[in-house]
Design brief:
Layout (H helix, E strand, L loop, with lengths): L36 H15 L7 E5 L3 H4 L9 E4 L5 H11 L4 E7 H5 L3 H9 L4 E7 L2 E2 L5 E2 L22 H7 L4 E6 L3 H13 L3 E7 L15 H7 E3 L1 E6 L14 E5 L5 E6 L9 H13 L3 E8 L6 H5 L11 H4 L3 H10 L2
Parallel strand pairs: 1-2, 1-3, 3-4, 4-8, 7-8, 9-13
Antiparallel strand pairs: 5-6, 7-13, 10-12, 11-12
Bound molecules: thiamine diphosphate and iron/sulfur cluster.
Thiamine diphosphate binds next to helix 2, helix 4 and strand 5.
């Protein structure tokens, strides 16, 4: 096997508004197992950024540890990146975002990285509404350490070795909605038509955007009886809506019958065009979204699509009223205003 990625591309590959072809948004050759769901997600991230006309140097990719957390090597090779410690990606993202609010922060994690060792970090980054995309590649197991059940493995799911998981699973999407995440979506690595618009919408959301993507581990958790296998997920997916993400100043081209489309305006003027498949669910209503997820769990279905969004959200910078300019662009005089100012500040707290 060779690890050199072929550089040949079809000469007629389409270019985006910046003049780049999609390969400018790709990364190195993946070393994950052939068929791993995570590779499909990396490709969807590259395609989403290509379609959004994002300058790759404006993106910072962050991750923890795991096969999923290796993927930032496989997309956006022209972006910034930081592969942190297991479960600690949110605190690195928080520090980086506070120092430079001008970048787009894209965090990827695994279900082990998020729902066990990183749980404390995950819940607090949601509460703070950090402006970032947080995408979990959820395979229900610890792929990198040879397939042990993770905390998102469903009760009753069968492992490759034949043992049945006894414990209730942690449902990350429900948890995110409960904790006040302002954009929550769920998808499947094998459904690019749904995943790419969700990634684009999440990147345009001005607060914490969470996407839980079921991403089967072909080596350790794709056996009959597993509820995270390709076959099981395909048979149990239930979609909330057909959707398209429409950036500002583009016309809606989605092929939906007139009158069935609901246009959700995003903060930056872009639109999510939704054709709802379930009228009992309202994506702008938190209780309705929580209800829809819980109902689908009772029926052993995996609800996918945009689950909940609050377009009028205030991110961490707005809440704590930081400087409009990124801290890393401020000069010494602004950052250190002198001893008179310090004396005034101290006096104000006496
Ligand atoms: C502090 C620490 N504890 C444990 C490990 C071992 N370890 C590495 S990856 C991993 C779990 C990976 O699972 P997940 O996040 O679900 O990612 P996947 O490999 O399934 O994509 C563990 C327990 C570690 N690297 N560091
Ligand atoms: S072990 Fe599983 S999660 Fe890791 S690369 Fe292989 S298929 Fe993917």
């Amino acid at each position: 096997m060779t690890y050199v990625k072929p550089s040949f591309r079809h000469p007629a590959l389409p270019k985006n508004d910046l003049g780049y072809t999609v390969d400018y948004y790709e990364g190195s050759l993946s070393t994950l197992c052939a068929g791993c769901g995570h590779d499909g997600i990396s490709a969807a991230i590259a395609q989403g950024c290509f379609e959004l006309n994002i300058q790759p140097h404006r993106v910072a990719k962050l991750s923890g540890i795991g096969c999923s957390s290796k993927t930032p090597a496989y997309f956006l090779s022209n972006s910034h990146g930081f592969n942190s410690v297991h479960g600690r990606m949110p605190s690195v993202a928080t520090g980086a975002n506070l120092a430079n609010r001008d970048l787009i922060y894209f965090g990827v994690s695994g279900d082990g990285d998020t729902a066990s060792i990183g749980m404390g970090q995950f819940v607090h980054v949601i509460r703070r509404n950090l402006n970032m995309v947080y995408l979990v590649m959820n395979n229900g197991c610890y792929g990198l350490t040879k397939g042990q059940d993770s905390a998102t493995a469903d009760a009753g799911s069968k492992s490759k070795a034949g043992s049945i998981n006894l414990f209730e699973s942690i449902d990350l999407a429900s948890l995110a909605i409960e904790l006040g995440a302002t954009f929550v979506a769920q998808s499947f690595s094998g459904d690019k038509a749904q995943l790419i618009p969700l990634i684009k919408a999440a990147m345009s959301h001005p607060g914490f955007a969470f996407i839980n993507v079921i991403s089967p581990c072909v080596t350790f958790n794709n056996n009959p009886g597993s509820t995270k296998s390709y076959d099981y997920v395909r048979e149990h997916m239930e979609t909330t809506a057909m959707m398209d993400f429409v950036p500002l100043a583009r016309e809606i081209k989605a092929d939906y019958a007139e009158g069935t489309v609901e246009n959700l305006k995003m903060h930056d003027g872009s639109t999510i065009a939704l054709r709802k498949l379930d009228n009992d669910w309202d994506p702008l209503d938190r209780i309705s979204a929580m209800n829809a997820v819980q109902q689908s769990r009772i029926k052993n279905e995996i609800l996918t699509g945009l689950l909940y969004m609050d377009p009028d959200t205030s991110d961490l910078h707005e809440m704590i009223q930081t400087s409009d300019k990124p801290l890393n662009s401020l000069g010494k005089d602004v950052l250190c205003p002198g001893s008179d100012m310090l004396a005034k500040l101290n006096a104000s707290s006496r």
